[in-house]
Amino acid sequence: MKRSYLFLAPGFEETEALATVDVMRRAGMEVLTVAINPENSEKVCGAHGVVVVADLLPEDADFTDVEWLICPGGMPGAQNLADSRIVTEALRAHAAKGGKIAAICASPALVLAPLGILDGREATCYPGMQPESDKIVMRDAPVVALDNLITGNGPASTLAFALAIVRRSCGDAVAQQIGSGMLVYPKSMNFYF
Q1: Which residue in 45, 71, 105, 125 is the catalytic one?
Q2: What percent of the chain has pLDDT over 70?
Q3: How many CB atoms lie within 10 A of CB 48?
Q4: Which domains does the chain have, with CATH numbers?
């Protein structure tokens, strides 16, 4: 299984970032956090004051051979990701080759939509942030999981979002095992798969 990266920019939503990494690692997936900040430091402060030390800086990451690129939401975290040339170039290149991308909360609208990654696709995002585009089919659902694109609507949907990533990479049995161990039962949630 290839390595995955989750981007951390100042103002990221802590629950969406950390719970996603946690679930993926429980499933045995290699996921590393990448600090995207002007100080070029591994320390990144989330939207609610939680400081996280990322696994690496962008120059230490190889975005050419990855499984997932993941964007948590949060404000101004999602906008900071959208403003990052490193993030947008990595996402464009990964999308162009059919790579797997996941984004939650404000990031589907602020990061993926302007890059055209959601065009012709179904997606969800934080309520009220839906992009004004007739090219995107926005769903009122906690999680929309397509083959190589997963979107979530906010913090409360983070475990479902992360389990959808695990499901796409490791299969239903592993996702069920991880979810059951965490007392999360995906079949009882309102998913749009």
Answers
A1: 105
A2: 95
A3: 11
A4: 4-188 (3.40.50.880)
